[in-house]
Amino acid sequence: MSQDWEELAPGVLRRRMPGWDETVGAVVGSETTLVVDTGPGLPAGAEIRRDLEERSTSPVGFVALTHPHFDHVLGTAAFSGVRVYAAVGAGALLRQGADGLRADAVRHGADPREAAEAVDVLVVPQHEVSGEQVLRLGGREAVLVNVGPGHTAHDLVVLVPGSPDVVFCGDLVEESGQPQAGPDAHPLRWPAALDRLLDLGGERARYVPGHGAVVDAAYVRAQRDELARRFGT
Questions:
Q1: Cα separation of 183 and 151, whole Å?
Q2: pLDDT at 137 over 60
Q3: Which of 18, 78, 209, 212 has the greatest count of CB atoms below 10 A from its CB?
């Protein structure tokens, strides 16, 4: 088991991946495990699955993709036989935009052969969330919530109720750098997405950015206000 995993609450884990510093997460129940994002390629996805299977007797049964960017989705094919969830519309985007996804990965420094291989076996989510979806894992649950658009048109967050509550934010929140508003961002609606995220988690939750260290509600609120100033909303 990799030593890079951090336990945020009992059975709630996250890992900052090397390279692009993207976060992957896991929620371990007594019956099944949910993985949140799958890394930037098949080797990363396979390592994540192997790590979690070594750590727990609970098999991986679900994957939730927070948004359709290469560093968060290209490892999904390593999770064969697993139900994959994403925000509504993400499946069509991944299906139609595979070449763009590969090009984006290579442009950001991914190995061209690995990127091409991952795109060739790209897994399109079978289950799309337009509002909320509760996943029961055995003794605990995870709530998938479509809060976007914001960072992309298809932003999904994962609330894990517990002590404390944990919210996996995807790239709606970033800690290791400024939030990235690429050509697929919806900057005028991003602050409202963070308002929904804060309503979901509340003041005492631990918020897990798509990149960087775990933060609190005050950090998320400050980033929300900065985005509103930045984009004039």
A1: 10
A2: yes
A3: 209
Q: What are the structure tokens assigned to 190, written together?
A: 């991003």
Q: Which of 6, 42, 46, 41 is nearest to 26 (CA)?
A: 6
CA nearest to 91, candidates 53, 70, 122, 57: 122
Among 181, 164, 182, CA closest to 223: 181
Q: How far apart are CA 94 and CA 125, in angstroms?
A: 9
Q: Residue length, the chain?
A: 233
Q: pLDDT per residue over 161-220, tens digit each?
A: 999 999 999 999 999 988 889 999 999 999 999 999 999 999 999 999 999 999 999 999
Contact criterion met (CB below 8 Å) for 65 and 82:
no
Q: Residue 1 above 50 pLDDT?
A: no
Q: Which residues pair with 82 in a beta bridge?
A: none
The three-state (H, E, C) secondary structure of the chain, written as one string = CCCCCEEEECCEEEEECCCCCEEEEEEECCCCEEEECCCCCHHHHHHHHHHHHHHCCCCEEEEECCCCCHHHHCCHHHCCCCEEEEECCHHHHHHHCHHHHHHHHHHCCCCHHHHHHHHHCCCCCCEEECCEEEEECCCCEEEEEECCCCCCCCCEEEEECCCCCEEEEEEEEECCCCCCCCCCCCCCCHHHHHHHHHHHHCCCCEEEEEECCCECHHHHHHHHHHHHHHHCC
Pairing of strands 156-160, 166-174: antiparallel
- Rounded Cα gap, residues 214 and 176, in angstroms: 10
